[in-house]
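Recap quiz, item 2
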Amino acid sequence: MKHKSILQIKSLEYEVDNQKIIKGNSFNINHKEHQLILGNSGSGKTTLLNLMSGLLKPSSGEILFEGVKYSNLNEKDLDSLRAENFGFIFQKLNLIEYLSIKQNLALVKDKFNSYDVDKIISELGLSGKSNQEVKNLSFGEAQRVAVARGVINNPKVIFADEPTSALDDSNTEIVMKMIFDYVNKNNSTLVVCTHDDRVKNFFSNAMVIK
Amino acid sequence: MSDLNFVLLSLKSRFSSTILAVLLTTFGISISIILVQFENHIKNRLNNDGKKIDIVVGAKGSPLQIVLSSIYHIDLPTGNIPFSSLKTISEDPLVEKVIPLALGDNWKNNRIVGTTHEYIEHYGAKLDKGRNWQKAFEVVAGSSVKINLNQEFSGSHGLVDSNDMHDHGEYRVVGVLKPTGTVLDRLLLTSVKSVLQIHGQYIKDNEQHNHERDKHEHEKHEHQLDENKHKTDNHDHHSEYMDDYVNNNQGFIEPEITSLLITTKSPIANINLPRLINKESQLQAANPAFEITRLSAMLGLGSKSFKLLSIIIMLIAVLSIFTGLASNFENRLRDLAILRAIGYSKARVFKIISLEGIIIVIFGIIIGLCSSFLVFNFLVDMIAPLNNSNAKFKFSFDIVIIIFLVFVAGLCAAFFPAYKGSKVSVAKQLTQ
């Protein structure tokens, strides 16, 4: 039976050096109900995103993906869960610079064979540059590659951390539309953490953390 | 993308440090293999050339020099000994076999050795072409001497090539030996009589004949004194190695040879006989086993230094693999964190970094093997003693051990960065 909530966050706490960064948060994210998490710098948005995606372990509380508790999974299972179900779009893009566009996408696509790499590169308008190392791309081009890498394995949840913070208004519009295009095409659930109010309009569910 | 593909791209992105690590591994493995080759070659040659020669008797001087000059033909003789000592020593009950050697000349750096057929039999050599010498000035050539059957030549004075040719006494090659892997391969063998005669010395009609008849009744030798040659040779043929001959009152020279190779009947004789011989003022007996052990001990210091050097180079190679993987490790942590974030397990990241080390080591080993082969052959071509002694690159178990040790050391060098890389804090790296 398919769980209604794709992600369940229960009394989640995370502390570093006795300082609580996440303080007892609880909320659910349902299938295909895209979630915006707004907050100022240092409010713990990125930490929350990392906890939800299993990149960090909570100090206390519980996170469930489709009813499966992260705490019940060993590290290897958690790696598999992340690889098979999650896509990431990072604030700093985090592409591997010495690899080409194609190779960066192929890294993720390796097992899942969902999108055709050439097709997605063509959709990004980067056909002529597919073999170019990403360190030689403009920021806008690299941003598109980062988006493509986040969606290429057809993930159930896409986590995006400040995807538009370095973009102007028109590019913010373009990138958000691009993300939503893929999200809708894949029936994915999008979780975006940002301090950028400009993206509010794209979401019906917004949560503010302080 | 396969992990191997990713690793190759990663190594390519750090081209300089990758090449440096490969080259250092190559140097380390090449030097070690070349040293092992030289060591094995010297050991084999010492064993093969000196087999079953228990005592060498020569003129008074350095025993080691006698052994080196008479068994290995790599040094100058200490002088000459009376031909009559051959008979005296042959008659000793402790002696099983005596092979006389008469040196003094060479042809294109190949020593012309006056001896008996026993010398060939001692090393188990077989004829490849032609026949054995039957009379004076007939020569049997070793396999690596660049000379043809029936070719005639004149020897030159001394044991190294010079323009001081004997203008009389043409030798003729009547046989060529098959390769033996011994000193015989690079010698030109003839009768003792030939060498003596060319230096104006003569064995009485029955002297060599008697000796050989006693030992080998089947061998028949011509002992006709060539009067014509005698006349033309009636001038001084002193060589630098035959300067202590004796003129008798009639103006005849008492024949002299260079040395005697002796096989004794028992190990006790190896100790007693030299003592007895050394009492004789003109003769010096040397025990090859003892002298070679002494030589090895002297050379051992050098060989140990080379071994130490090759170990140091291999350690540097291992460290370079380590530093190659670890030096820009901080820069790579983000890339590794990306891999972990997109679902690569810790084990897979560990495997990727280890694979980088393995590839460096494998390339180093392959290039090291090839270069050691090429460099060894180059050195053999360049260094005359190696060339003369027919040094050949041989795959031995030592090479397998070197490869195994370098491989294991390379793996160990890769493991620490691999372990550290697999433990990377993903969230921390990606948000920095």
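The interface with chain A takes residues 1-2, 6, 9-10, 12-13, 334-335, 337-347, 426-427, 430-431 of chain B (CB under 8 Å).
Residues 213-250 of chain B have pLDDT under 50 and may be disordered.
End of item.
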